[in-house]
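Just scan my protein:

. . .
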Amino acid sequence: MSSLFQVFGKNGSETPEPVKAQVEGSIPSWLQGTLLRNGPGLFSVGNSEYNHWFDGLSLIHSFTFINGEVTYRSKFLKSNTYKRNVTADRIVVSEFGTMIYPDPCKNIFSRAFTHLSNVIPDFTDNNLINIIRYGQDYYASSEVNYMNQIDPATLETVGRINYRNHIALNLATAHPHYDDEGNTYNMGTAIMGFGRPKYVIFKVPADASDKEQNKPALRKVQQVASIPFRSTLFPSYFHSFGMTENYIVFVEQPFKLDIPRLATAYFRGVNWGSCLKYDKNDTTLFHVVNRKTGKAVSTRFYGDAFVVFHHINAYEDDGHVVFDLITYKDSNLYDMFYIQNMRQSAENFVEGNKKFSPPICKRFVLPLNVQQDSPRRTNLVTLKDTTAKAVVQDNGSVYCQPDTLFEGLELPGINYKFNTKSYRYFYGSRVEFSPHPNKIAKFDIFTRTHTLWQQENCFPSEPVFVASPGAVEEDDGVILTSVISPDPKISPFMLVLNAKTMEEIARASIPASVHMDLHGYFIPG
């Protein structure tokens, strides 16, 4: 078996000018637009090498669909981090799993004073996770206070923006939500220096951009609500959140950021990744916040400990909030992507060796009509299409037990027109007894069945759904995913699947190097 490193970990390269792909099959004529993708693409600079896959320097990809043809280009994000590393011809900026110590660019005593006064270190701006739209501006994003604006047509880096100049945040997610009006909702964490530590929900209006005046969309950011930490020095890590028509759903999980360890990581010679700790004996809290009033539902909803990175969808149904997410029984996923682990054979990660905890899609249901006199020890979930439970405890809190939907799927995606609404299908990268996402799956929630696309020795990226014009049915559209292979005889290709049947209708082979990415955004053209 090949190693993860052979599939994902080798250095990528830029394709700065558009190249035309060779199309087999027939791409629908209505499919017009650009799929932007982001992910780590450079894992060594000079003779220095990153320790973790999530440290790699951002490589932005674009796949443009015009009149049945596909063109591809890619460029490294020209962040301050990228520029400093390339100029020095070595890694000089610390990342998630790679701590540079001592920093050759700053006096250590000056560095110490900066950390002790601000508590939270000044992070890298290597935004390698996703593409976010705020107003009409597009940003390469990660989970820190910096983003880098990009030109979606040329992939040029326009410039860096700091959340802190517009809203009091130390960290922010790279997985926002967009409502029907085009407004963007996101969440972040205000840890130190901004008053009481809290999680912050904010909104950027659709009309916030001012390209003529060159003013960023974030200048019109609005705080929607805040949620205090349950533990001041140990806030929950979160990668995404849920949104319904009326509510924000935030999962405060026992996968926590150790603030004292983070603040002293530089001096202790440990990386920031080691500052995340999972407490399997703790509970998970579910916060439901009205996104119009900013007020949280007063009922204390909680469940057993688990780790979550990706939400699938959330909606309201007959007085309940329903939300689906991908859970893990531990936090080993991060450890798996250390480069030294990725170089091992995939056989070392099979479930039997218990080194790889499979992702499990679970559904939680929270009843909104909990009263002081609600019967104790009784399941308040009245929906007939789920086995999820919400049982009122003697103290009035509600213990929630999920309905297991599907095992072995990550990087979930839906027809986003059904975001915040009752839905039937989700798509994702299928993971079976190995961390290799070597299949694309479509899961039918109603029938609890799934359909697969796969090709031997091929590894697809996160699937993206694009709806057909005027589509009424939820799965009327196509699935887009870029596919790579360690086999030199198989060129990288953009795969186009019929979302109803999961049958291939076209592939566009790309005459250039394409690297495995993480997340992205489709811009209709």
User: Anything to note?
Assistant: The chain has a mean pLDDT of 90.
